[in-house]
Every structure is written in C-alpha cells, then in structure tokens.
Please model this.
Amino acid sequence: MKKLFALILAMAMAFSLVACGGSSDSDTDDDGDASSASSASTSEDEDESGTESEGEAEASSTDDTSSDGELIVVGFAQVGHESDWRTASTESCQSVFTEENGYELVFVDCDQDSAAQLEAVRSFIQQEVDYIIIDPIVSTGWDTVLTECEEAGIPVIVIDRTIDDSDKYAAWVGSDFTTEGLAAGEWLKAYADAKGIEELNILVIEGTTGASATIGRTEGFQEIADKYGWTILDSQDGDFTEAGGQEIMESYCKSYEGQFNVVICQNDNEAFGAMTAMTNAGVTYGVDGDVILISFDACTAGLQYVQSGDINADFECNPLAAPFVDEVIKQLEAGETPETTVYMEEHWYTYDDTVSTFEVDGVEQSVTVVTDEIVEAQY
Ligand code: AHR
Model:
C-alpha cells in the first residue's frame, strides 16, 4: 500500500525531483562494488559507551522485505556526482538497495545544492518511504527537516558526512575526517624529516565549505601545522571537483610562484585538477618533483597516480557505507537498536616506504605502499 502511494506521489512530484536531478533507481544497474565492502570492515572497536564501532557488515544477499512481504522503500538524498568517490558511493547504494535484496530505492542526486537536498528529503516524507538515507552536503541546517521526518515516523540514517545540529537520526556511518587530516599532517612531518626538508610552505585546496569532510580534514591538518610551525600560505574552496581544483591551483601558481613546496588537496578529483594546473605552469610535483602532493579519498585513479609517483600520499575515505546501512535497517526492522556511530575502516597509501609507520595522538599508523593488486581491488 505504501509503495502504491509512494508511486502516485512520486509521479506527482516528478517535476520537483527532476529539478534537482532526481530519479527512481530501483532497477538501475548493479555493477557497484558492494562485495569489496567486506575489505572495508575487518576490525571491531567499540568505545566504552558501546555506541561507536568500526563496522562489520557485508553486502546483503538475503531478502530484506518488510514483515508484510512488501519491498522496503528507501529514499536516498545523495550529495551529487562531483567526484570518483561520489560515484563509488552511489554505486554501492544502488548495488545493495535492489529489489533482489528486498528494497525499492528512490535516488535523488542533489547536485551539491543544499536547498535541493532539503526538498528531496521532504519529497521522501510525502512519498511515505520507509527509511531515508541522507549524505548531508553541509553539516548544519538539518533540525527542522529531521523533526519533520521524526513526526512522520520515518527513521533517518546519515552516511559519510555528519549532521552537527541535530541528533534526530537513527545512525551515522562514515569516516573520521579529523583523523584523516591529522594522519596527512603527521605523515608529512615524517616524510619531510626523512627527506631532510626543513621548511614547509603549504597550499591547501579545501572541499566544499560547510561539509564535515572539509571541516574535519582542515582542522586535523591545521592542528599538525600549528604543532610543527608550518606556514599555510593559503586555503581555498575547490568544491571537491576537478575543475575546482584546477581553477584554485592555477590561481595559486600565479600568486605563490616559487614560494610553495607542499599542496594538500582534500580529494582526489581536486588533485587531478591541481596536477593539470601545475603541469601547465611548469611546476613539478610528486616523488621526483619540487612539490609534495597529498590527496584524500584513494579511489582507483588516485591510487594509480600514487603508484606512478605523481601523488606522494593518499589518505583513504571509504565510500562503501551501503552494506552497513542495510545492517542498520535490518536491525530496525527487527525492533533492535543499532549502533549510533559506525566508522569505516580506512588506509593511508603511499608510493614507497620512505615512511612505513608514524603516530597520530600516540596511536601507531601503518602505511600501505600501492601495488597493482591494491589498485585492482579498489573502488
Ligand atoms: O564526503 C566525502 C567527500 O566528498 C570525498 O572526499 C569527496 O570525494 C566527496 O566529494
């Protein structure tokens, strides 16, 4: 019944969904890589309250239909399609939330537009979906619409980025962005020491302003820069896109010509754009270049550039959250209380073992040298 109602309302709302790139995707292709999610879930690390863990979930192959035998309708308000990482995240959801697995997925690509994302969530409420998944473009401005979800009795599951001004959701599954930033900083310190580089003059290309991925990586790296007295010459928003990375780097190459020896890009696609800009400006980068290039995400193309030595180090952000969300939904369907916070397992990738271990807040971190096998297995 809910499904029929949802379909009628979905047709009525087609215009507004199209306006923000929406599409019902219950029979989209399923060539996403949910199976590799098992490699993202090896350790378990509950905190004292028992509410945080490094997730252990596998892509579901069992039927998750609700107890009345109908498909479970899941609305997913995705950030957009700005990066390789985002594509992997979307494909992960599309491969898990299939009819075969007992789901109907209503997918909306919000094209990095926060207003469109709020509209998408409200359309899910009107469609009376069973669950709403949100990957929040920005971390604030959520309490009103999450209250509306709560009043409608629809559980919300947040993935990837965090919501920081409301707790009206059942669970969050994502990355520890601050630790990613801290790790990038501490690795850079160890690498510079090993290479005998005493002075670091750093340019940062940030992700989307207001996104928790940007906030965490920026704060984590800044903490290390402050600790070691590094100079951050500039830090600007590249919106997590290749075009954004290229544009900011072109302007940096002009404004800071000859003054910088480190570039931090807050995702792989920005790094690809920055590499184009530096090549065009005659600036050399990577293991044999004048500029140390650091990136985040570690998607396939990013790792290929690490393997070729163009990117010195890539700090993983794992996009394969969907199997964990499937677990959360199963638990909610069974009347159980899911973990409220699940961190994805992530690795730090480098070209070689110049630095093999380093510490973040006293915890030893190991570094993974990229091989053909690693590139092949990556999303
Ligand atoms: O929120 C995750 C970030 O968003 C990824 O680093 C980036 O690629 C994406 O756009």
Observations:
- The mean pLDDT is 88.
- The CA atoms of residues 19 and 163 lie 24 Å apart.
- The chain has twelve helices and 16 strands.
- The pocket of alpha-L-arabinofuranose is lined by residues 82-83, 85-86, 160-161, 213, 240, 267, 296-297, 317 (CB under 6 Å).
